[in-house]
Amino acid sequence: MSDAESEILNLRALEERRYAAMLAGDAGVLEELLHPELAYMHSTGELESKESYLRTLRAGTSAYKSIKCDDQTIRIYKEVGLVFHHLEADVVFEGNARHLDNRLLAVWVRDGGNWQMLALQSGPVPR
Hints:
Layout: H1 3-24, H2 27-33, E1 34-41, E2 47-49, H3 50-59, E3 62-77, E4 80-93, E5 96-111, E6 114-124
Parallel strand pairs: 1-6
Antiparallel strand pairs: 1-2, 3-4, 4-5, 5-6
Helix pairs in contact: 1-2
């Protein structure tokens, strides 16, 4: 296996770990995976920092009930990894249940030898 293939598998595993942590409400794992300068753009257009994203998760303001990802493509350019995929999720936000059907771009950077997610852009799948 080449180094590039190994890095792609590593990022795929990190994405799976991130989604498992979201489902479990495990802010500790997300604290480790998310870059301090995270910019998290929701499909609603709301932009959150790492601090605000983790705060809503810890407070129970947002809770993921199911997450399914498919159609994933990963590209690596030196210290930057781009993860494109389709996501369907059921989430409860401020007491309101929502079903998400989105395309995502997650940007990971290798910082100090470790990969962390620096940015996420989410948008609804056109109907």
